[in-house]
């Protein structure tokens, strides 16, 4: 192998190793920071009105269907 090719291969391997290390370090740091409460927002009141309205509405419709079906049966 020519010395210039050998030097280029070593340089490419060096750059790839550094970029892989940087990628792993960056991703690990992002996971650690996202798992900590460092950037957490203060707790706020949980709005349950939207979901609760949907559940109550679907229960009312289901109940009306059951009553209608039981009246048809009798």
Features:
elongated; 2 helices; mainly alpha; 74 residues
Protein described:
The protein has 74 residues and is mainly α. It has a domain at 1-35. Helix content is 78%, strand content 0%. The mean pLDDT is 75.
Give the SSE layout.
Elements: H1 3-35, H2 49-73
Quick summary:
By secondary structure, the chain is an all-alpha fold. The chain has helices at 3-35, 49-73. 78% of the residues lie in helices and 0% in strands.
Q: Could you estimate the helical fraction of the residues in percent?
A: over 70%
* Uncertain stretches: none
Kindly report the average pLDDT value. 75
Structural class, from helix and strand content? Answer: mainly alpha
Characterize the biggest β-sheet: none
Indicate the proportion of strand residues.
Answer: under 5%
Number of helices: 2
First-to-last CA distance: 94 Å
Oligomer: single chain
Please write the string of helix (H) and strand (E) elements.
Answer: HH
Radius of gyration computed on alpha carbons = 31 Å
Number of strand elements: 0
Judging from the principal axes of the Cα atoms, what is the shape?
elongated
């Amino acid at each position: 192998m020519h010395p210039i090719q050998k030097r280029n291969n070593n340089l490419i391997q060096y750059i790839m190793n550094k970029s892989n290390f940087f990628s792993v370090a960056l991703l690990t740091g992002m996971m650690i920071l996202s798992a900590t409460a460092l950037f957490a927002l203060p707790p706020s009141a949980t709005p349950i009105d939207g979901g609760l309205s949907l559940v109550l509405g679907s229960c009312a419709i289901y109940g009306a269907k059951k009553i209608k079906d039981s009246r048809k049966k009798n």
